Amino acid sequence: MKKILLITSLLVGSAFAQVNGKIEVPYIDYKLKDGKNKEVVEANCFMCHSFGYMENQGAQSRDFWYKKVMKMKHAFKAPIPDEDVNKIADYMFANYGNGKLK
Ligand code: HEC
Fold first, then answer.
1. 27 versus 51: which is more confidently predicted?
2. What whole-number distance in Å separates Cα of residue 19 and Cα of residue 17?
3. Could you tell me if 34 and 64 are in contact, meaning their C-beta atoms sit under 8 angstroms apart?
4. pLDDT at residue 28 in the model
5. Does 13 have pLDDT greater than 60?
6. Which residue among 39, 50, 53 is best mutated to probe the pocket of ligand 1, counting the most ligand atoms within 8 A of its Cβ?
7. Rounded to an integer, what is the distance from CA 17 to the centroid of its chain?
8. Is 28 exposed, middle or buried (0-12, 13-18, 19+ CB in 10 A)?
9. Is 6 exposed, middle or buried (0-12, 13-18, 19+ CB in 10 A)?
10. Does position 94 have pLDDT exceeding 70, yes or no?
11. Whose alpha carbon is nearest atom 21 of ligand 1?
12. Residues 6+ apart with CB under 8 A from 70
């Protein structure tokens, strides 16, 4: 019994271990292009991942962006309101598009 208590107190103790000094984590700040509906993208797309995921796709069609937003909504359960889906696809196509609808 004593052994269990000792082990438990050791475990609890380490769970509250403190780190002295500042910890720096790299933070990548992505600047979104200014454009219509930028704020809708900011409100819906960055709670799970950064803009890097989107920018790394390269210039893409309107259809591509629409499908990506729908994938986030349905496959990953992103809480994107229906009325915002087209606004986001429009912004991405206007600012990170390849000029092709399909
Ligand atoms: C509920 C969480 C969530 C939200 C909100 C979200 N995503 Fe994602 N997204 C994910 C996950 C999970 C992945 C896949 C990560 C992986 O494969 O490593 C992903 C990946 C992506 C990718 C990479 C390509 C791909 O298909 O995997 C793109 C592009 C993307 N998201 C765009 C968006 C856009 C645009 C929005 C806003 C409309 C958005 N995401 C909002 C969860 C989310």
1. 51
2. 7
3. no
4. 75
5. no
6. 53
7. 30
8. exposed
9. exposed
10. yes
11. 53
12. 85
Reply yes or no on whether the pLDDT at 33 is more than 90.
yes
Q: Give distance in angstroms: CA of 24 to centre of ligand 1.
A: 26
Q: Which residues contact 59 (CB under 8 A, 6 or more apart)?
A: 96, 97, 98, 99
**Residue 65 structure tokens:** 């962006």
pLDDT of residue 60: 98
The preferred substitution site among 30, 38, 40, 49 for testing ligand 1, maximizing ligand atoms within 8 Å of CB, is 49
The structure tokens 């909504």 sit at 73
- Cα 34 to the chain's mean position, in Å? 19
Judged by average pLDDT, the poorest of 4-8, 23-27, 84-88, 92-96 is 4-8
Q: Among the atoms of ligand 1, which is closest to the Cα of residue 65?
A: 35
Token reading at 61: 């069609």
